[in-house]
Write a structure and sequence with these properties.
- The structure is a single chain.
- The chain has 20 helices and six strands.
- The protein is mainly alpha-helical.
- The strands form three sheets. A two-stranded antiparallel sheet has the order 1-2. It has a two-stranded parallel ribbon with strand order 3-4. A two-stranded antiparallel ribbon has the order 5-6.
- Strand 3, helix 9 and strand 4 form a beta-alpha-beta unit.
- The protein starts with 13 loop residues before the first helix and ends with a helix.
- 40% of the residues are buried.
- The protein binds arginine.
- Arginine binds next to helix 7.
């Protein structure tokens, strides 16, 4: 049943009705819609805007609807215009005139703005819990691999030695920032628009602070036009979710590289890999690839929200009904990705020997060799040049810096002595990188505690 039949002489066209309806998306907010209505009715009762008998009937009726939906005794009508319409008309069917009083001093515009905030609050909590689980997994692994030497890369070229624990902690820092960003966005979202009415508040003596408090909001919004037309919180959350996906996607990219035969730094558990329908030898990192691919969806959701909102005059416009599809999809996608990603990381096998082998090639101790000369008094630029000559010599002779005889070193610079071998050993290179935030095992162990 429509809520707005009075001035209309015809039923809506069936196809138009389907086009106009948002029930397929917003029925998942039924709990929040009922919660919001209970708070609104409670306030109307307290303020004497409706009688206490009506107030009680409404609240009882709403609670019954909630438990009936929960228990599968009441099915949400797929032809209803939206969840707000469905709950209100079911209530009126069940309790009569009292049900018709629920919408006093309220509009679907402030109602939907309230419901979405309440619903997203729950989704934020779920994402927050998943991110915390991921950071714990990363910390535990980082501790385990605090001493595992691997090459660090720039431009995907071996650059300087680091530890695998250090590498994992880089992601730990990223996801920790994501947790902060999420809670920050939640703070701005947790403001009640209820009581903004359609756009211009109401002439009834409502108590907006009361409904805000009953619904666990930190405060009530200060402008009714802004209250119904603000979707910044959706955009902000979609941005936070997009950044999470950037991090997951970069991590996935590395996982994909690491389990290739070219790297073989890790092996994914069979439970988190897939095979090929034709090539019997294949073990593919599909989960990581899907996570990388799904980042596109979430960025798309953010673009949807930005584009929907950018040209809208104040206050509510129906365009805004599109907000839910986008922000729910963004949350669902992040949730699905994290659900698969966390155990994939937790169960992967690390192959330290291969990391070590890769670290031994590519002259990743060249900076340390230059630093050795600096410590003997040579200015860094001269030390850099001398080491460059040594690397060229090594390439020519097909040797590593560790293998190059001391006599050769001395032809380039007479400050070199046999203690250079200790200075450029990978263990020294890593354990001496003790600068704040550096990869030394000691640092990693301290950070991962
Ligand atoms: N289903 C609508 C939405 O999701 C609810 C608000 C409807 N308000 C209106 N004036 N048509 O945005």
């Amino acid at each position: 049943m429509k809520l707005w039949t009075g001035r209309f002489s015809k039923e809506a066209d069936k196809k138009t009705n389907d086009f106009n309806s948002s029930i397929a998306t917003d029925s998942r907010m039924y709990k929040e819609d009922i919660e919001g209505s209970i708070a609104h009715a409670t306030m109307l009762g307290l303020q004497g805007i409706i009688s206490s008998e009506d107030c009680e009937k409404i609240i009882e009726g709403l609670k019954q609807i909630l438990s009936d939906i929960n228990e599968g005794k009441l099915t949400i009508d797929p032809d209803a215009e939206d969840i707000h319409t469905f709950i209100e008309s079911t209530l009126t069917q069940r309790i009569g005139d009292a049900g018709k009083r629920l919408h006093t001093a309220r509009s679907r515009n402030d109602q939907v703005a309230t419901d979405v905030r309440l619903y997203l609050r729950t989704l934020c909590e779920k994402t927050d819990a998943q991110l915390n689980e991921l950071t714990e997994v990363l910390k535990t692994s980082a501790l385990k691999y605090a001493e595992t030497v691997m090459p660090g890369y720039t431009h995907l070229q071996r650059a300087q030695p680091i530890t695998f624990g250090h590498h994992l902690l880089a992601y730990y820092e990223m996801f920790k920032r994501d947790i902060e960003r999420l809670s920050d966005a939640k703070k701005r979202m947790n403001v009640s628009p209820l009581g903004s009415g359609a756009l211009a508040g109401t002439t009834y003596n409502i108590d907006r602070e009361k409904t805000a408090e009953l619904l666990g909001f930190d405060s009530a919004c200060l402008n009714s036009l802004d209250g119904v037309s603000d979707r910044d919180f959706c955009i902000e959350l979609a941005s936070v979710l997009s950044i999470i996906m950037v991090h997951l996607s970069r991590f996935s990219e590395e996982i994909i590289l690491w389990c290739s035969w070219e790297f073989k730094f890790i092996e994914l558990d069979d439970a988190f890999s897939t095979g090929s329908s034709i090539m019997p030898q294949k073990k593919n990192p599909d989960i990581a690839e899907l996570v990388r691919g799904k980042s596109g969806r979430v960025f798309g959701d953010l673009m949807t929200l930005l584009t929907v909102m950018k040209g809208l005059p104040i206050a509510y416009n129906k365009d805004m009904q599109e907000d839910k599809d986008a922000i729910f999809d963004a949350f669902d996608t992040v949730n699905m990705c994290l659900t698969a990603f966390i155990p994939m990381i937790e169960t992967m096998t690390v192959i330290p020997e291969n990391m070590r082998k890769a670290a031994a090639g590519g002259f990743i101790n060249a900076t340390d060799c230059a630093d050795y000369l600096v410590k003997k008094g040579l200015p860094f630029r001269d030390a850099y040049k001398a080491t460059g000559q040594l690397v060229a010599l090594c390439i020519d002779k097909k040797l590593t810096l560790e293998e190059l005889p001391i006599e050769e070193y001395k032809t380039v610079c007479d400050l070199f002595d046999t203690d250079v071998y200790d200075a450029i050993s990978l263990e020294t290179c890593v354990s001496q990188r003790l600068s704040m935030g550096g990869p030394a095992p000691e640092n990693v162990k301290r950070s991962a505690k």
